[in-house]
Amino acid sequence: MRLDVRWIALALMLPVAAARADSNVDYAYAFALDTHATAEAYRVVLTPEVYASANPSADLGDMIVVNALGKPVPFALMPVAPPLKHDFETEVRLLALPVAAANSDSVKVERNASGGIVISQDGRGATAQRPKSWLIDAGREVNIDGIALVPASIQQDFQLHVSVEGSNNLRDWQLLSDDASLTRVHNDQDQVEQLSVELGGNAPARYYRLRLTDGEVDWSTGHAPTVTLTGSYTDAGADRASQLQWLDARVSGQAASDYDFELPATLPVEAVALALPATNSAARVHVLVQGRDAASWTEVSALDLVRAAGRKGDATATINMRSVSHLRVHSDTPLSGAPSLRVGWLPPQYVFLPEGSAPYRLLVGSYSARRGEYPVDEAIGRLRGSHGEDWQPPVAALGARKDEAGAVALEAPKVPYDWTRPLLWVVLVVGALGVAWMAFSLLRQGRRDEQ
């Protein structure tokens, strides 16, 4: 008896087909993932099309990544990356703090509207004593690594010991260095310079204070040297704003001074940008977003737009992040046409570990299926420990959307017909007929006995 190779191949493929069917039957759509670059993990950046494919009530829980066998692989929201560090360097002049500031209310140290230091002194505390403390305004909160005196600004020799403190409000100070040496000796025999104070591991601060603990120097107003501050800073808000992606909203309707717009999906919107349609125009406009109830609208921003004298007539506003699919622009005065509206959003990033073999696919959209919990945070933490805290997995680009189970996977499953009640009625009827038949039989038997 000869074995048919085709039947053997079919038998071998059945487990693969069953595995694929088990994983994919509950999902509506599939996106191919480009993982040609070899890596230990990959990022997936969501697009409006992914949002449009998901079940709105699932909160993106109806997404999984499967391998070539259709088996789910570890997949979760990308852990938050450490804040981006920006190099910082600036030169500022030391601000001499009058000696009376330490023990008198005749000297006031305040901040102006922009945060700059303002030192005011009345005649009660005025003295000719040399200052022993100096303030530095870095201009923003920074992690200072070092403070260095600029040689060209120094007018005299000195041998000093100083302490350094940091603050963000000019009231509460944190000690950063309790004994730092500063030296400048220029004469015929020696030229010695130690002009920098090294700091490290300190909390970010905007204001710094140098206190003289030993030595004498005349760094009064007009004689104070300039210092160079070096370090780094983080600005999560600005970094996030720079990463926003902008999407044009489509005009969907107009009624009087109200212009309705819609997005291709419900997206997490963080900013809006508007522009007037015609030159030599001006208007105050209000941006509203639709609530869960189609009839409810909430204002999120009001903008004054002027398109004249070289101005483009556009403006941008940041709003509290909210899920938005429909927006409305209301103008206090008539416009010549619909304004242009763009929304800024930051696409969520997910990460998966390439368990098994490629190709990998992102499956999206299900009425009932939900993704399991994977300890991806720990895995990414270990990878960053190996590659550096700034390491990011490469992006696996999304391919075109294709049907998996199709839109039917987003629909509630049909409830099978409940045969319990009909069967119960049948049993009751049959039982009643049986009782009636038994009663009839007994009556007939009784008549026969009488005869």
UniProtKB/TrEMBL annotation:
Residues 1-21 form the signal peptide. Gene3D superfamilies: Galactose-binding domain-like. It comes from the Bacteria. The chain crosses the membrane at residues 423-443. Keywords: Membrane, Signal, Transmembrane, Transmembrane helix. This is DUF3999 family protein.
